Input
Amino acid sequence: MPRPTKGARLGGGPHHEPLLLAGLCRELFQYGRITTTEAKARRMRPLAEKLITKAKKGDIHNRRLVRKTITDVAVLHTLFTEIAPRYEARPGGYTRITKIGTRRGDNAPMAVIELVEGEIAAKATVAEAEAAAKRAVKEADEAKVEETKADEAEAAETTEA
Output
C-alpha cells in the first residue's frame, strides 16, 4: 500500500492506517457489508476494489500480493473462490457506499459499504431474453414469408393448369 496521505489520519498514526484499512477490507469480504464512518469507507473503497481485481486474476502472484493485506486465510479463500468469480464479467465498481446518517454518540457521519451483487448478471440475462425474443420474432417473420411464397407458387400452378 502506498504511503498514507498527508494530514489527519484515520484515528492513529501513519503505521496504523494501512492496518486499519486492511482490517476493514477483511470484515467487508467476510460479511459482505459493514457499517463505518464515511471517511473510512471512502478511504477503504479503492483498496477493496484493487484486492478484488487481483483476486479475479487468481494466479499465485496475485494471491501472494493480496495475502500481504488480508492475512486471514479463511477470508482470503472466500475472496478467491466466492467473491472474485461473482465479478468475473464486471470491469469495476464492486462496492457501494450508502450514507445512513450520524452516529448517536459523537455525531460522526456514518455509511454502509457493501459488495454489489450480480447486477451485471441480471442485466445480461435481461439482454439475453430480449435477444431471444427478437430471434423468435425474426424466425416467425421468415416462416410467414416462406408460407406466402408457397401460397403464391400454388396459386401460380393452379392458374397455369
About this structure: The CA atoms of residues 41 and 113 lie 6 Å apart.
